[in-house]
Amino acid sequence: xxxxxxxxxxxxxxxxxxxxxxxxxxxxxxxxxxxxxxxxxxxxxxxxxxxxxxxxxxxxxxxxxxxxxxxxxxxxxxxxxxxxxxxxxxxxxxxxxxxxxxxxxxxxxxxxxxxxxx
Length: 118
Prior knowledge:
Blueprint: H1 4-8, H2 36-99, H3 102-106
């Protein structure tokens, strides 16, 4: 019936790549061809964009550093003001306690005062 000659001449219509599940059987070939100058320009643009992104991130970090410095300055100023107010409070509290003491109440004011001139 069948001769060996017919079976040896059989060729598959498939290419050398075998068909697999979930893969396209058609390969996309772009009609747009880019030259070496275009590739160089595109790479230079990508490097420029990445550099700009890096600079914006570095600038943000620097602006945060300035904000932190100004806040630290305000904290130092308010701390010194608080210390001054604590001293003033202690001084005023001491005067009130001295005036209200029993010894101060027993004191009398002088009848006359005189000043020595030089």
